[in-house]
Design goal:
Blueprint: E1 8-14, E2 20-22, E3 26-28, E4 31-38, E5 43-50, E6 57-58, E7 64-65, H1 71-84
Antiparallel strand pairs: 1-4, 2-3, 4-5, 5-6, 5-7
Amino acid sequence: MPAPEPALCDDQVNAGPGGAMTDDVGVITGDLTIQTTRRADNLVHVAIQYTGADEWYTLTGSPVSVPDGELEQYHERVRTAVEHGEGAVAPT
């Protein structure tokens, strides 16, 4: 039996050139924290913040549909996109 999906995944990353696009404040760059969470409606929400800040922003393209049991793999795709930069959005 597979291990249960975690409630959330989070990582600290350094955004690549061009940063990550948010719905709230546009592009953010630098040292960022990403948090990926499965909501009650089964969609996955990606929040992002400047590491150490209080404010969280929605990564553009979030929420998205992600199959059950694949939250960690999806979070890794988000992390890779943000590390790449270029106005990264939530992968589809």
